Amino acid sequence: MPVINRIAALAPEMKEWRQWLHRHPELQFDLPQTSGFVAARLREIGVDEIHEGIAKSGIVALIRGCKPGPVIGLRADMDALPITELTGKGYASEHPGRMHACGHDGHTTMLLGTAKYLAETRNFAGTVALLFQPAEEDGGGGGVMVQEGVMDRFGITQVYGIHNAPNLPLGHFQTTQGALMAAVDTAWVTVTGKGGHAATPQVCSDPIPAIVSMVSALQTIVSRNLDPLDELVVSITQIHVGSADNITPETGWFCATIRSFTPEVREMVERRFHEIVAGIAAAHGVRAEIRYDKGYPPTVNHAEEARFAVDVAREVSGRDAVNDDAGREMGSEDFAYMLEARPGAFLFMGIGPGAGLHHPAYDFNDEAAPIGASFFARLVERALPVV
Questions:
Q1: What pLDDT, in 10s, does the model give residues 347-365?
Q2: Exposure string over 305-332, b if 16+ CB within 10 A, otherwise e
Q3: 47 φ, ψ to 5°?
Q4: pLDDT tens by residue, 248-285
Q5: What confidence tens digit (pLDDT) does each residue in 103-140 have?
Q6: How far is CA 362 from CA 22, 80, 92, 185, 359, in A?
Q7: How far apart are CA 23 and CA 373, in angstroms?
Q8: CATH architecture of the domain with residue range 5-180+298-383
């Protein structure tokens, strides 16, 4: 695969960067070491401007080409996950209970490698805005950056991102036009009855049968309220109730994750969720309180920009290594907010065999970083050609 020669030469340095980031994982918006490391590398690289403190710990860096022109945004997420690492690597997390289990250390490294190449060559007509984002895993840092005005402030006209994909062959790309990843909503339901001795159920209002009925009935949203041609997941992920074998509990609660692709389905699920829970609570003589949080919107690629990104990926990895009709998946991504704000595309890039994302044995493949950086660099040079 034709990795850019200069970027290939940066591979040892990129490996050092990535493994330093892996040793120092940080969570959500609280990324002082990570953002400090990124800013220090950007100063060494010699970018034209560095804007820190965006969305608390995010960074926007600008590199100007040899001629004026439009501004293209390239995004990398920087945060880690609250997982205890089990890789056993020499560069494993130095912070128990936190690790880079989703490869954001690799994403950040790819964008730093891109920055170094573009700052040296400047063979493009326009400006590149490097978006180093906090809180993708939890907190919607991409949305916060958009709300704080990065698109307008820096004049960004298009935006692109990559996510690594374990067990997709190294350097292979896949994406699709239109909806690529789902919206995610989360519901917490607290059910309150009347507790007492388990030997006297007639004087209690047991929340357990109500919760069991709710969990079962909520599954009918998919089977009975959804158009069979649409896509939806309603998964109950937690149930917490009871404390002893001879006590009818006073309260219990459960949690659900809801994944969908269209505003119409999203609205229908929320409405039916409330109706089902309220109806069953009334039937069982208990009280139910719902907290229904709207999360990330669907990640929707723009058709023209997706076609362009696919062409660039084929230039880097070869035509047979790029699938431009990979279909949708039910995971979610806060890059969705950036794609709502500006045209662009999001792609998955294979890193070869290994543990899956969010697994304690996951590790980013350092051989993938020069491929991702080459993709970003060629995308800029093709989108902003010097004429």
A1: 999 999 999 999 999 999 9
A2: bbebbbebbebbbeeebbbbebeebbeb
A3: -65, 165
A4: 999 999 999 999 999 999 999 999 999 999 999 999 99
A5: 999 999 999 999 999 999 999 999 999 999 999 999 99
A6: 11, 12, 11, 26, 5
A7: 21
A8: 3-Layer(aba) Sandwich (3.40)
Which token pair is 190? 């607290």
Domain range 183-294, CATH class: alpha beta
Query: How many other C-beta atoms can be found within 10 angstroms of the C-beta atom of residue 304?
Result: 12
Band of pLDDT at residue 2, cut at 50, 70 and 90: confident
Pick from 71, 89, 34: nearest CA to 56: 34
Would you say the pTM of this structure is higher than 0.85? yes
Name the β-bridge partners of 295: none
Q: How far apart are CA 374 and CA 378, in angstroms?
A: 6
Of 298, 299, 300, 280, whose CA–CA distance to 290 is shortest? Answer: 280
CATH 3.40.630.10 occupies which residues in the chain?
5-180+298-383
The token pair that represents 271 in the structure block = 């409405």
Q: Which residue stretches of the chain are H helix? A: 5-9, 11-23, 32-45, 104-121, 141-147, 150-153, 207-218, 220, 263-284, 303-317, 335-341, 369-383
